[in-house]
Automatic annotation (TrEMBL):
Originating species: Pedobacter steynii
Domain Amine oxidase: from-to ranges: 82-544
Family per similarity comment: Belongs to the flavin monoamine oxidase family.
GO MF assignments: oxidoreductase activity
Family matches, as InterPro entries: Amino_oxidase, FAD/NAD-bd_sf, Flavin_MAO
Protein name stated in the entry: Protoporphyrinogen oxidase
Entry coiled-coil feature ranges: none
Residues spanning the signal sequence: none
Length: 548
């Protein structure tokens, strides 16, 4: 029985009320909102996410206490995600030390944040990068600086063996068996295999294609891609329409492409542009002396490790629990940031010559109340919500076929699978495993899915994820000792039709009055480490160019 038919049986059993509850976490009955009672799983754990209180403070127009302190700094960076840290690193390495980085959370790193249990660290968001495209010298320099690239051999980077994903890398549960690799093969009819091969051959060709301007059609960062109009038009149709036009109908292929879009964008093929869908497959050309093309780099705490490499040298510049809630100008033309200390609940002001806003645009919309940003339509920017579950198990049942890998995906299930966060651990003393399970909440429009996600209790989340986990590993419930749930309400920017190459993002990247600059991965339209890293550098360079 497939996962989906089992799930529908399950849903029928839980009845109509719970079905609505799966969507909203509660329902309106006689005008009253009632939380739905979930099936009780006796599993200890907790539900967390980015600082909700700070989010409310930003959203609701509450009055903040009178500022008690006033300070001055030359450059103020707002946000210590990868983009903010990358901007800080660039400033510091360029000799600029008069800057400060504000972060509203008690921790640094934004979506690259990680957690830990008594045994080990695990990712709570971003968990891997691929080896750099060889022409991306700036990223390669960073990788050399932090010993991810140890040396060059015959002109190719030699990657640190401890950070290249340890084998075995990927497996897919399909037609009752774990097969190696994620491209569907086991039990797939020949006709469908032919379509899969055709698609892979087409993207392979696109991978090496250059536009009329001599640039690769698809590149990382996105800004290095060709702006040849004959390819940019791919941004004006959905990936699904593109695949329909090309006659790709195989259910296995379409599942695989949906999986890929969910994995990188938190959305389905119908919700992202064809340019974005193809970018996933055709933008990577990284060659290494000691690894396969496009090999994966990862750490037990995921990209939390990369984040620490950026953050540690900047420690004295970073102020955590410091939320900027409004930007304005002083009478003498400086930028004035109003900052709330989430811990002490005190308010202060910071006067800066220049600000680099490394928060997502939906936050910037609130900070810039009263400051015009011509041509920027915030409503057009959608952010995909995610649930990440770190599941501690004392043992893991085998199943048929390939054994446990770093990345473990099940065909035709709601999630994009789980990674074995202990894969890169040298110390094998961990009792059991910690599985980091990723569920993109993409069955509804992001705003609806987000609202529902925020309203769910820990128990209600278990009601959603446990049937899938039990399907993947029958009997798993009994061996789970703890679950750490994390909800990302605005996890990733959605590269919808006409976003990446449209006017909106182009305008959003523009500085205001050469005083307020912008850097965040959402400005690329694709939320990955490399984009955040390059956005930070671009903005830092703009600031330095305008340094008065
Ligand atoms: C579930 C999930 C899985 C992911 N997996 C991967 C992956 O495997 N590989 C990958 O490359 N990418 C992954 N990503 C994408 C990830 O978002 C990017 O790689 C990158 O970390 C984004 O960095 P950023 O700086 O652009 O944004 P953010 O991480 O959003 O950083 C913005 C920062 O600004 C802070 N901030 C916001 N408002 C304020 C304010 N008013 N005052 C002060 N501070 C503020 C926030 O708290 C945050 O720290 C994943 C994302 C999610 C949600």
């Amino acid at each position: 029985m497939s996962y989906n038919s089992r799930l529908s049986d399950y849903i029928q059993r839980r009845g109509f009320l719970l079905r609505v509850g799966l969507i909203t976490g509660g329902i309106f009955l006689n005008g009253c909102y009632k939380r739905l009672k979930a099936k009780s799983y006796d599993i200890p754990g907790k539900l967390s996410g980015p600082n909700e209180k700070a989010g409310h403070l930003l959203r609701d127009k509450i009055s903040f206490p009178k500022p008690l302190e006033h300070s001055k700094v030359k450059i103020l960076i707002i946000g210590s995600g990868i983009s903010g840290l990358s901007a800080g690193r660039w400033l510091k390495q360029s000799g600029e030390t008069d800057f400060e980085i504000l972060e509203l959370e008690a921790h640094k790193g934004g979506n690259a944040h990680s957690g830990k249990n008594k045994d080990a660290a695990y990712p709570l968001g971003a968990h891997y990068v691929t080896v750099a495209n060889n022409e991306d010298e700036v990223l390669m320099d960073f990788f050399k600086e932090i010993n991810v690239i140890t040396h060059m051999e015959k002109g190719l980077p030699y990657y640190n063996e401890f950070y290249l994903t340890f084998d075995p890398e990927e497996r897919l549960l399909i037609n009752g068996e774990w097969q190696e690799g994620l491209v569907p093969e086991f039990g797939v009819p020949e006709l469908e295999k032919t379509q899969i091969k055709r698609f892979l051959a087409e993207v392979e060709e696109l991978r090496l294609k250059k536009g009329a301007d001599g640039k690769f059609v698809f590149n990382v960062p996105v800004s290095e891609s060709s702006s040849d109009k004959s390819y940019l038009k791919l941004d004006l149709m959905s990936f699904k329409d593109y695949l329909d036009k090309k006659g790709f109908t195989s259910k296995y292929l379409l599942w695989y492409l949906n999986y890929a879009c969910k994995d990188d964008y938190g959305r389905k093929i119908s919700d992202v542009s064809a340019w974005a869908g193809l970018h996933y497959f055709a933008s990577r050309r990284g060659l290494a002396a000691n690894a396969e093309r496009n090999a994966v780099l990862t750490w037990p705490q995921g990209n939390g490790w990369l984040m620490e490499q950026l953050a540690d040298p900047l420690d004295k510049y970073i102020r955590t629990s410091s939320m900027c809630y409004q930007l304005g100008y002083t009478d003498n033309g400086k930028v004035l940031a109003l900052v709330y200390d989430v811990n002490t609940q005190q308010n202060r002001t910071i006067e800066a010559e220049k600000v680099i806003l490394c928060a997502p645009q939906y936050v910037n919309n609130r900070l810039l109340r009263g400051i015009k940003r011509p041509g920027v339509d915030y409503k057009e920017l959608q952010y995909a919500p995610w649930l990440v579950a770190n599941i501690k198990v004392s043992a893991l049942s085998g199943g048929r076929g390939m054994g446990l890998c770093w990345d473990n995906v099940a065909y035709d299930t709601p999630s994009v699978g789980y990674v074995n966060s202990g894969q890169q651990r040298l110390n094998t003393a961990e009792d059991g495993h910690t599985l980091t399970y990723y569920l993109p909440l993409c069955d509804f429009e992001p705003a609806v899915a987000r609202l529902a996600a925020y309203s769910r209790s820990y128990e209600q989340w278990l009601d959603i994820i446990m049937p899938e986990l039990e399907y993947i590993h029958p009997g798993l419930t009994k061996v789970i000792t703890n679950i750490d749930l994390w909800v990302w309400g605005h996890g990733m920017i959605s590269p919808s039709v006409d976003l990446i190459w449209g006017d909106n993002l182009q305008q959003a990247r523009k500085a205001i009055d050469q005083k307020i600059f912008f850097a965040h991965s959402d400005l690329s339209g694709i939320s990955i480490f490399e984009e955040a890293f390059h956005q930070g550098i671009r903005a830092a360079k703009e600031v330095l160019k305008n340094n008065g």
